[in-house]
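Reagents: none. Just compute today. Aminopeptidase.
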Amino acid sequence: MMRAPHIGLLEAGARGTIADVAGVTVGHCTLAQGAVQTGVTVVRPHGGDVYRSKVPAAACVINGFGKSIGLVQVEELGVLETPIALTNTFGVGTVANAQIRAAIAANPRIGREDPSVNPLVFECNDGYLNDMQGLAVDEAHYASALDACREDFGRGAVGAGRGMSCFELKGGIGSASRIARIGGHVHTTGALVLANFGRLAQLTIAGDAVGRTLHAARDACQKPEQGSIIMLLATDAPLDARQLRRLAARAAAGLARTGSVYGHGSGDIALAFTTAYTVAHDADFIALPPLVSDARLDPLFQAAADSVEQAILDALFNAETVAGRDGHRRLSLNDALKQRP
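Predicted 3D structure written out:
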């Protein structure tokens, strides 16, 4: 199997995934049987109770064709209160309910003496391969993905990525990391993407317009963009929510370099969080560590753009060919490249 080329000048972390940011883990629950090709992926920012120890975060909506839950409160308060969940479009409500139940189980005062909890679920439409009308995702699948969270995790056609398409090939879950040095300090930034976007002719790999050749070989017609991508960025650099939103915005640079134009029907959303500190639920005051100066953020911006681009390629190169509903099939990039003239 061919591997993706290394993107940019920054080095990767030891694993080359978002889990290079200490404390971050990822788990999948994959449903792959006949017309059901879908699943749930969970990203835990730390191993504790995220409701009690909230994580600074911010989102950037690049193109808002999406059905996510929880973004309004993240924008207002600048923290996460649950792990981050990914699934298909019709599974969002079910997974949000599962997040709420899990938070209540750990904190029985939620919604009574304590405030409610803000579930955070992102989605992409996997309806080409998966029978979304079957509503196959249930609350137990979230619990299974949460329980499966580890530093070492699968990529490609797994979890929420099982039924996703990318550049009219098989897409899914991809991840990458980059090391940035600021004022003598070393910081890791990692990305995880749910890649489900793009037209084949647009596909660009490390500057090489590979998609043009593959598109011509298929004699395919150009269709409007109807996909989406969720881009999650984790960093151990001490940033506040305003700076994290700036970091999330740089995900768009990495996305664009793969050939995306953020089409009308594409939901392109980035969220960035830091593990450098947490915000206690019951705190009267918040003690912040010294934050990175805005004037010193460029290495982190570079790490964000490069790791997102690398993560998209990681999803493509790790995915397998998948057949789903009504005989629909998505060829993996590796299988497509074998057929290239």
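The chain has one domain: 18-278+292-334.
Action item: order primers for follow-up constructs.
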